[in-house]
Write a structure and sequence with these properties.
Structural class: alpha/beta
Number of strands: 7
Order of helices and strands: EHEHEHEHEHEHEH
Radius of gyration: 15 Å
Helix content: 40-55%
Shape: globular
Number of helices: 7
Amino acid sequence: SLSLVGRGLNAASALRLSQALASLYRLEELTLSATWCCDTGLAAVARAIRRLPSLRALNLERQHAGDAGVSALAAALAGMPHLRSLRLVECGVTDKGAEAIAGALSGPSALPALRSAVIADGCLSPSGEAALRAAAGAREVGLELATRAAAVAGSVLAYPAAGSASGSADAGAHAHAAGGGDGGRGVGISV
């Protein structure tokens, strides 16, 4: 697992990180928290994670991304067959980004292993939330949505996977696992 927390990444350092990620083809968990990647930086990271066939958990928190970065990430997600857990918290996910992520969830072979997704951002309207709920429900993915205010207050709207009585509990467990500690297996990178 690789966890990079509290390191500001400008576009150049995000590019260096993406180059380093290319050599970590066995990486299973990636957490970038408070790295403040901009659209360009998140797009570079998105290109790199496409080449991580073993990635099972992706946790991105507090990024300065917008529609372009989130759309690049969504395009990368569409080609990740082993990703089980996705967590995007305060990453600038707007309705346009939500539609891109919903598109990544659509289709018979898109993200076949995904079981839980957490998207907590204050930029989603009811139509963006509806697009995510519809795509997640069609794929039997446990989805948790929260506005920024609800995330700070600790309240999350859980939408269990279709046909699952315990989908929201599973989603929370997977989301926690994606953002949890590295159990001593982590790798630190200074940029």
